[in-house]
Amino acid sequence: MLLIRCPYCDEERPELEFxxxxxxxxxxxxxxxxxxxxxFEKFFFIRANPKGVIYERWRHIHGxxxxxxxxxDTVTDKFVMTYKAGEPKPAKLPGAAK
Amino acid sequence: MAxxxxxxxxxxxxxxxxxxxxxxxxxxxSVKVEMLPPAERIxxxxxxxxxxxxxxxxxxxxxxxxxxxxxxxxxxxLWLGPDEWLIIDEAGNDPLADCAKVSxxxxxxxxxxxxxxxxxxxxxxxxxxxxxxPQDLSLDAFPVGAASxxxxxxxxxxxxxxxxxxxxVECWRSFSDYVxxxxxxxxxxxxx
Amino acid sequence: MSAAxxxxxxxRLKQAKTASFSFDDKSYTGIEGDTLASALLANGVHLVGxxxxxxxxxxxxxxGAEEPNALVxxxxxDARKTPNVRATVQELYDGLTANSQNRWPSLAFDIGAVNDxxxxxxxxxxxxxxxxxxxSAWKNLYEPKIRAAAGLGVSPEKPDPDHYAARxxxxxxxxLGGGAAGIAAALAAAxxxxxxxxxxxxxxxxxxxxxESGARIDGENGYAWAQxxxxxxxxxxxxxxxxxxxxxxxYAQNFVGLVERVSDHLKSPGRELARERLWQVRANRVVIAxxxxxxxxxxxxxxxxxxxxxxxxRTYLNHYGVAVGKNVGVYTANDxxxxxxxxxxKAGVNIxxxxxxxxxxxxPVIDEARALGIxxxxxxxxxxxxxxxxxxxxxxxxxxxxxxRTIPVDAxxxxxxxxxxxxxxxQSRGKVAFNDETRRFVPGTYAQDCVSVGACNGTDGLAxxxxxxxxxxxxxxxxAGGQAGKGAKPKVDAGESWSxxxxxxxxxxxxxxxxxxxxxFQNDVTAKDIxxxxxxxxxxxxxxxxxxxxxxxxxxxxxxNMHGLAIAAEELGKPIPQVGLTTFRAPYTPVxxxxxxxxxxxxxxDPTRRTATHGWAASQGAVFEDVGHWKRAWYFPKAGxxxxxxxxxxxxxxxxVGGLFDASTLGKIEVVGPDAAKFMELLYTNPWEKLETGxxxxxxxxxxxxxxxxxxxxGRLAPDRFHVTTTTGGAPRVMHHMxxxxxxEFPHLNVWLTSITExxxxxxxxxxxxxxxxxxxxxxxxxxxxxxxxxxVREGKICGVPTRLFRMSFTGERGFEVNVPADYGEAVWExxxxxxxxxxxxxxxTESMHVLRAEKGYIIVGQDTDGTVTPNxxxxxxxxxxxxxxxxxxxxxxxxxxxxxxxKQLVGLKTKDPKVVLEEGAQIVADPKQPIPMKxxxxxxxxxxxxxxxxxxxxxLVAGGRDRMGETLYVPMPNGTIEVEVTxxxxxxxxGERLNG
Lengths: 98, 192, 997
What we know:
- The structure holds three protein chains of three kinds.
- By secondary structure, chain A is mainly β.
- Chain A is built from one helix and six strands, in the order βββαβββ.
- Chain A has a single domain (3-84), classed as Folate-binding fold (2-Layer Sandwich).
- Helix content of chain A is 8%, strand content 35%.
- Chain A starts with a strand and ends in a 14-residue tail after the last strand.
- In chain A, 28% of the residues are buried.
- By secondary structure, chain C is of the alpha+beta class.
- The longest helix of chain C has 18 residues, at 462-479.
- Chain C is built from 24 helices and 51 strands.
- Chain C is elongated, with a radius of gyration of 38 Å.
- The A-B interface holds A 1, 8-11, 13-14, 16-17, 62-66 and B 66-67, 80-82, 84, 134-135, 148-151, 156.
């Protein structure tokens, strides 16, 4: 069971309290009704699924109930960092976590 | 049809309240698990700007530090999230009515009947809760007054440490049988 | 003492405390503190099992958890028959009953042993090659036969009556292994004041100090020092000492699974005691002190009972006071077997000879053995063991060939050297490194905050191990935030240090030989099998492992992996590190299902949620059905009624008079805030801004792809407050979905969501008399049609308690849903029931609810929809706000596939024969005479007998359904094809007049 740092609780908490919520930084268009087929396809269907660093959304659903963002390495399954929802994608990642 | 019944009628006498698992207790050698009496509760949601007004109306300062609570005159405010508090009033006063007087932005929703409270008390209280709760419940990590929504086995609970060897476990009404039974089994093991 | 092999004065058990036990129906006596293995050995019993494949007689190889051979069945009673218990681990209790496994009719005479004679047939890869043809025979013939012949032991047929406990625990320093190194590490860490957990799989702490007779620490005998140190640790508040506790899995971020065997060693454990306790420990730092495991020598018939590891014989002697034989041979490639020979010799056991593969070893143990008059043969090998049910001799030959000599023995002690136990380190994702000089894998690169110390780290010698462990324990505690410790490092005055040894097959079992020189005892893998695997093209150790099953038995190759690897490497002509080591995986030793399940069985398997009226319904004889975690009243049979009769009566009564239904399980969410209507506009297809306070609307929620996600009636309690209902099953995910959008897409909205599902008990009162039933109990609400029309909500009181009274209908009749605070639910129900009785109303359950709504064509999301149904498909286009510019799913709805012609649409079906009720899920075709496979154009989603209609009714998703009104379609079933007519979805009161009836 992983420990995940909730940026709202400011503490590492057991994975059981969390739920993954898919890839992060995929913004819903403010004019979604007018979106082209291609743009809607990208928005709704296409996901990166990288080997390595992934930006994803998690929710501390059985804790503070907040959604937040996390950077995780899909190879090592280690969290690099977490940050609050709405904050920009970090320009620079901290050194690999222990 | 039935036009005669369409008029407002005077209400019949009050009906009795039947809390879930009322009065149930379990005593193990080093821990006691018991259902707590009904309490008034609200789920309070508010932005930071409203906290002063709400604290004043409620008579208890809403804590802003994660995993903490504040208690005054039988009323406890538990920090559950950055804009979310569980208010439990054990003194018979209605926090919903208190919040209704506040014009500052907020949401107060009555959940007195949604939740039930279970007391877990005794030297093995922390071990008992740890049978299903993955959080570190040492006094350093979870001191008296610490409060957190978390997991107990397969149920969600809100956990409040009321004393070094006592916790209040809050869960939704229909999960009370599961939570009480799990705590009871765990209490039996915690003594060994 | 009748046990012939118990040596008076030897060992640590108190001879006065005897325990009687039985093995294969024969009674024996042992001593409290014995393992089943030591007790049997004390009675001269070596033959305890038959091997898995060849059914060869087997005895004890070891004295610990690595045991591959001595697996027995422990029987407490009919329900407690535990198979595959390692006799070397099972502690003796008075009355213990054990049976051998994998033999018939008896252990000494086992028919299955014919496999041994026919063993050329059963060579490596046998199963893969033999049972290939004919294909159909695999399922019907081969697999059942193989499965019947395979497997060890017998499973109990009754449910496990024991209970199992579980705990989460946290500590700064977790020490795995309670030998000298682990104890030293724990002492160092504990002295700093941090929380320490020390776990060891044995009943007593001490590890190798149990057999290392000459060890002295802090001026005491090593074992005594260990016990004193453990007593000190136990007395400290910050330390938890767990014996009989195996660390079986090392997971992410220092999360370690331990199983504590709580009561398997007790004669009659009390009900209050769990059988096992699972500890899920999160540690800041982990110190791995799991020691090393001795390897056997690989030579012909090295599996004969009586052939065992030297350290095992030493443990049996020095700890249990048991001699493993009277005339013992020793075959070794390292020093540690000498110590065993010396201890046995001193205890009065004859050592027939020591056969040492090395040419000219020197050292104090060799000198001591020689001084004791033991015959020592250097540069020689044991090439074969004689005897069958028990070893009777060893055949010795110069290692490079030459004259053979056969020496009679009744036991052979062997040692090929020691393998560091890197299992847990490897599980932690650490990478092992091969040390060319010592020819062993040791911890290399660490992946987690842990450290290996002592023998498992390749550290030789007691003194060096204790020094290393103490320093590591102190550092781990410091790194985890501990203060500087005040204690003193244990001083090792005397201790052994083991030198190298050998890997692979010994002389006589090398390339070209066909003898049965076992590498893996538990899976009957010989040196020859490994070579054959290489010859047949398995060049990776992972392939060799799977082809031969070497290391794949429950002992996971603790004694065999290194030998197997060395033989494969030799055959491939590659250095060992290039062939690689297979990955170690959890569990380290077998773990019972019970301990994994823990408390989660029976009532605690999953929460069972009951509504406030459950007790009343049960008292009325309701039959319940599971809906998610909920128990819901399904139907209320009266005496003599079956389900159909009860449902028919309930449905008719509701439409004729009225009925009460518990709708409490419906999800309920209170949406509060000045932007509540804006939020509702975005989450539902319907318009909400203009919904008046006090009115309700049926809402549809889509996913972004345009498909129906949920539905429910929403009431507006105030301009800034909505009472939203969801489906029962959808409640948690709808809340999650709404929170997701609110928090991450629309965070600018001032609105909050609170689940009130359990705040309110909901009593649906439906039917023409519904208002008459409710009104007498209501206060402060005008229930006239003018004041409270269909689809409205009022707040007031009922029976003197607060209510949110909805006028709404899921039956098509005049209807209400009475919401009251949950603790009042049952009492208000009873009051309403009493009123209902005056009119002849009925209580009805979920089955009637389903029938009644289907009669009106009301859909159930998840039954009539399946995640690919749009509002238009479901005939609900009217609920989509055409003027809206945004809501979740608005773009999805315009996708080309979603607006294409010929989509499946929800329609009604009437069978030509009104008595025939279709099966839900049945497929629909247009032409029943077409060849198979037929083109299916839809399926039945809901189907019931409707007593109100006097016929069956059904809803179905049919391609282009609404253009097929009146068409005849066909439902092919095993017993014939059913003709159906496509109809509208409303079967009762098409005009909807009964809503105000």
